Amino acid sequence: MTAVDLKTNAQKSAQKPEVLRAVKGMNDILPAEAARWEWLEDKMRSVLQRYGYANVRTPIVEQTALFVRGIGEVTDIVEKEMYAFEDRADKHGQAEHLALRPEMTAGVVRAMIEHSYLRDSGRRLYYFGPMFRREKPQKGRSRQFHQMGVEALGFAGPDVDAEVILLGSRLLRELGLIAGEHFTLELNCLGETAERLAHREALIAYLEQHKDLLDEDSQRRLYSNPLRVLDTKNPTMQEMVNAAPKLLDFLGEASMAHFNGVRAILDAAGVGYRINPRLVRGLDYYNLTVFEWVTDKLGSQGTVCGGGRYDGLIEQLGGKAAPAVGFGMGMERMLLLLEEVGVLAAAPTLHAYAIVPSSQGLPQVMVALEALRGAGVSVQFHPGQSSMKSQFKKADASGAGYALIFGEDELAQGLVAVKPLRREGGEQGMRSISCAADWAAELLNA
């Protein structure tokens, strides 16, 4: 190797490494923002547990066939958006076809079937987690996005449809959102297979008469999934689509009885809604009741939560036939809505901040802080050495309710000075370090 080569290699090694960045559409959630997520998740869990729903967690990666069979082969998700890949081949040269989950319902159903979890009774379940769709990032929907969802499996009646809708409405209300002002509940009924087939024939015949008005996407769906044409957002097609045959007109007595049963419970509970005959949802597995909560506060991305009944999915994925209903709520979109209407997440409470002027007493200080934490107090200490003025600034900026001052004189007497930081007229007082758990309740009222 020449001297020039050695010099070049030395220059390359001295160069600063390239900064690596997150994948496009997959975003970091930093601590300040994560505090809002934790607040939202805690509020949601409180409601979910009151309705008797239990948490379920499934893998992020599933077999591609699960979503092709569950969601539908001619849906946008499977055709264009799903992250699907072939895994490395095993020693026999066989490779699995895998996918990052684009939604959670199919995975939950797969788990229930695999573990025979519906054998004895129905199940009420909820989940939180990331989903993945390779689409153009948009407001409230990145390529990695997060959902909270509920699934009520093994229950057939309109009462459970209504319960799930009541749960969703309560979630929104307890988050500080107002029905009619911040969101609207939309309902529809998709009926059963024979009813949808009769409507499908009439709908295709109607759309064929107006084929010149269909955009490219609608022409592609005309014969494969004509119901999705009704969900178009193309403004030039709205008048034509509004006049299309309505599925409600094709429903039989049993389907209408189910739908009216849902409506009767919502009416009795005082939950307002609007019947939207064009509401079909984006997945193939729905039947009977479908619903969405929509808002006009987020522009074109107006659906903040949606779901419905999917009685055929469990059998479709290999299980014993059983009814089911559920919904999914986008977490990013919900946080955007809360911010838009001025609902602010409560900041996490730090009860106390420890100011330690000298490192000499650190062992004694750390034992006292552990005693406080054991009693339920959240407390930080100031690491390293800095001036009292600097430490008080840190204590004030932390949002803590109290400063705990472990000065050398106080430590020599086994004491700590407790100074209120947020209470007007609050006076500083001395407390015994060895009895920290006894006065912890005072700090919990910060």
TrEMBL record:
<dbReference type="Pfam" id="PF13393">
    <property type="entry name" value="tRNA-synt_His"/>
</dbReference>
<keyword id="KW-0436">Ligase</keyword>
<dbReference type="GO" id="GO:0004821">
    <property type="term" value="F:histidine-tRNA ligase activity"/>
</dbReference>
<keyword id="KW-0547">Nucleotide-binding</keyword>
<keyword id="KW-0648">Protein biosynthesis</keyword>
<dbReference type="InterPro" id="IPR015807">
    <property type="entry name" value="His-tRNA-ligase"/>
</dbReference>
<dbReference type="InterPro" id="IPR004516">
    <property type="entry name" value="HisRS/HisZ"/>
</dbReference>
<keyword id="KW-0030">Aminoacyl-tRNA synthetase</keyword>
<protein>
    <recommendedName>
        <fullName>Histidine--tRNA ligase</fullName>
        <ecNumber>6.1.1.21</ecNumber>
    </recommendedName>
</protein>
<comment type="similarity">
    <text>Belongs to the class-II aminoacyl-tRNA synthetase family.</text>
</comment>
<dbReference type="InterPro" id="IPR045864">
    <property type="entry name" value="aa-tRNA-synth_II/BPL/LPL"/>
</dbReference>
<dbReference type="InterPro" id="IPR006195">
    <property type="entry name" value="aa-tRNA-synth_II"/>
</dbReference>
<dbReference type="InterPro" id="IPR036621">
    <property type="entry name" value="Anticodon-bd_dom_sf"/>
</dbReference>
<comment type="subunit">
    <text>Homodimer.</text>
</comment>
<keyword id="KW-0067">ATP-binding</keyword>
<dbReference type="Pfam" id="PF03129">
    <property type="entry name" value="HGTP_anticodon"/>
</dbReference>
<dbReference type="InterPro" id="IPR041715">
    <property type="entry name" value="HisRS-like_core"/>
</dbReference>
<feature type="domain" description="Aminoacyl-transfer RNA synthetases class-II family profile">
    <location>
        <begin position="40"/>
        <end position="357"/>
    </location>
</feature>
<keyword id="KW-0963">Cytoplasm</keyword>
<dbReference type="InterPro" id="IPR004154">
    <property type="entry name" value="Anticodon-bd"/>
</dbReference>
